[in-house]
Structures are given as C-alpha cells and as structure tokens.
Here is the input.
Amino acid sequence: MLRVPLRGGLRATADAWLARGADAEVAEPRPAATVMLVRDGASGPEVYVQRRVSTMAFAPSMVVFPGGRVDPADHTLDPTTPGLADLAAHMGVTPEAAAPFVAAALREVEEECGVRVTAADLRGRGHWVTPAFEPRRYDTWILAAAMPEGQEAAETSGESDGHGWVHPADALRRAAAGEVRMMPPQVWALEALREFADVEAFLADRPQIARVAPVLEVDPDGTPVLVTALP
Here is the structure.
C-alpha cells in the first residue's frame, strides 16, 4: 500500500474537489502512455526525467517520464508490428488494443526528447489511472526501454524546463525532502527501478501488471492523502 500526502497545487485541487461533496464531478480518463528511458550509470540504472513547466494544465512543475495522451493518428499502428504481440500479452490485452498506446509512447518519446525507439524495445511496467479529483485524468500505460546507443536525450517539445538522467534513489530522496515534486506513479516506478543492479535485469523483469487507481482519503489532521493498492 502506497500513501502519499498531497502538497502544493495538488492539495489545493484535492481540497476544492472534496469541498464540493456530492456535487464533485469526475472526468473520464483519456488514454495515454509514458516511457522510462533507462541506461546504466556508475552506481546502477539511471532514468531520464523531465520537469514540466509551471504553466502546464496537467501536473505543472512535476518530474515525469516522457509521454502523453493517445492521439487519433496513433490508432493507425499495425497490430502486427514486430514486438507488439509479446508486449500486448504482458500487458494483458490484444495487440489491437495495445497498438494505440504503443504508438503514442513511440511518438511522444521522439517529440519530447528526440529519441527514437521501436515497439520491440518497449517493456511493460504498469497501468495507472489519474485520481478522481483531478480535472484532467489519464488512463496511462507505463512502459520502459533502454536508451539506444548513438542517441542523446534532450528537451525538444517546450513542455519542460528541466531534464536529465537521475539515479532512482537520488530522485526518491529529493522527492521525500520536498526538493522536487512527483506523482505516485513516478514514485512507484522509481522504487521498482531502484531494486535492479543494471538495465538488462530491469528490462528482463516481467512484473505483474494490474490497473491501479489511487483513492483520495483524508488523514485525521486534515491532510489529503492518495492511497494506492499496488499489484
């Protein structure tokens, strides 16, 4: 069970939603995908992250992995694309159902950091849904891929004001200290990556994937907390 107290803008959004009580609206989640680009560093695996600009409508100033929502054009990816069937089997869906999410992942990685990966490079890690209190909600598949040799990741979309490679333990420490802001899916994903000695072992892992939907609760002191039952 993962419990994350909400701070800053997330707390304000949660408080406002709770105040509306029975009149609180719940938005329909939009399909999306995000990718953990990983490489081996001096002290173990590292992952590429970006800090979203403060003006973004969703997750402003949050540290995230490259990704975004599924666009109409993403539905054109051929379900017989090499590597897609195996990935879909691990995701627990058909290749036809997985194809738009995979297409979105490949497109977003190239658009946001200039890196090209293939469907065969991707591995399944998780499936998370944005909590009900958020006005913008996403049904997001978390995928992973090794950073391709000969390529470099950079900010190419204008949607972030900071980026770079981080060791998961360092990122988690900074998040716990309040130095950076991360959402529960990123915290969970970094905690998983921290347990592996190298990228090869991480990408060889086939974790159980289940749809995770964090629930908003309020602690006795009035602090809103996201409570997540993990697979």
